[in-house]
């Protein structure tokens, strides 16, 4: 399983934090970066994987039994006893679930794109609530949330930013999200997050400009969440 807490070196975390500091020198808005190992438990996908493994195990052992029988009987005439087949199905199902529980990618094989998007959005909302909405601040805030297992990004803004940016808010969110996703898929998570932070700062400097004496109201460190929010 991917582990957000072990994903970055100290120098990489410092690089992202430096990008946040530089971006916040252009705007009075607070920019928060959060990285989660995964966003959803995907229990249904785990169960589906177990079912597939159970069926494949049943087919495999029945074919193996036929081969060991040296083809003396038709595959439909010879087979593993009923109690043996039950044991194979149960063992395959449990074993498949255990393997899938250790690997998010396997669980996600049987999840729809909408289900994954919903889990990532839910994880982002939880982090936004804990790290932004529950804090005491006067200025607006932007959250850039990356879920490693899903390789998905969610960008959230509070009401202060929505009010200041107005109709350009959707462009801000989509622009940052698309840049982070693209660079993450190219293999550089740190570069992707730094680029997203930089873009957010550039987009906000006009509508939410930096003012002298602005207080840094939220920490600049990267919020690391494992295994999920």
Number of domains: 2
Find the CATH topology of the largest domain.
Diaminopimelate Epimerase, Chain A, domain 1
What's the alpha carbon Rg, rounded to whole Å?
A: 24 Å
Beta-strand content: 5-15%
Helix-strand topology string: HHEHHHHEEHHHE
> Residue-averaged pLDDT, rounded?
88
CATH architecture level-2 label of the largest domain = Roll
Instruction: Give the distance, in angstroms, between the N- and C-terminal Cα atoms.
Output: 15 Å
Structural class: alpha/beta
Description:
It contains 9 helices and 4 strands. By secondary structure, the protein is α/β, with parallel strands linked by helices. α2 (10-24) runs parallel beside α9 (189-207) and α8 (169-185) runs antiparallel to α9 (189-207). The protein has helices at 4-7, 10-24, 43-68, 82-101, 104-108, 113-133, 159-165, 169-185, 189-207, and strands at 30-36, 141-147, 152-157, 223-225. It has a 4-stranded mixed beta sheet with strand order 3-2-1-4, sandwiched between helices. The longest helix has 26 residues, at 43-68. The model has no long low-confidence stretch (mean pLDDT 88). The protein folds into 2 domains: 4-40 and 112-225, Roll (Diaminopimelate Epimerase, Chain A, domain 1), CATH 3.10.310; 43-108, no CATH class. Helices cover 59% and strands 10% of the residues. The protein is elongated.
């Amino acid at each position: 399983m991917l582990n957000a807490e072990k994903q970055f070196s100290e120098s990489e975390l410092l690089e992202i934090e430096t990008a946040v500091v530089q971006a916040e020198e252009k705007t009075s808005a607070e920019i928060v970066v959060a990285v989660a190992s995964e966003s959803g438990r995907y229990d249904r996908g785990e169960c589906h994987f177990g079912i597939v493994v159970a069926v494949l195990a049943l087919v495999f052992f029945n074919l193996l039994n036929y081969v060991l029988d040296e083809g003396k009987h038709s595959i439909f005439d010879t087979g593993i006893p009923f109690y043996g087949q039950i044991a194979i199905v149960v063992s395959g199902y449990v074993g498949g679930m255990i393997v899938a529980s250790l690997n998010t990618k396997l669980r996600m094989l049987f999840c729809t794109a909408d289900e994954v998007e919903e889990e990532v959005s839910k994880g982002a909302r939880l982090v936004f609530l804990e790290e932004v909405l529950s804090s005491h601040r006067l200025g607006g805030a932007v959250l850039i949330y990356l879920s490693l297992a899903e390789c998905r990004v969610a960008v959230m803004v509070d009401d202060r930013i929505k009010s200041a940016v107005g109709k350009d808010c959707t462009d801000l969110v989509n622009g940052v999200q698309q840049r982070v996703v693209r660079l993450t898929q190219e293999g550089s998570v740190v570069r992707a997050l730094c680029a997203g932070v930089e873009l957010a700062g550039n987009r906000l400097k006009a509508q939410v400009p930096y003012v002298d004496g602005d207080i840094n109201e939220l920490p600049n460190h990267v919020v690391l969440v494992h295994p999920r929010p």
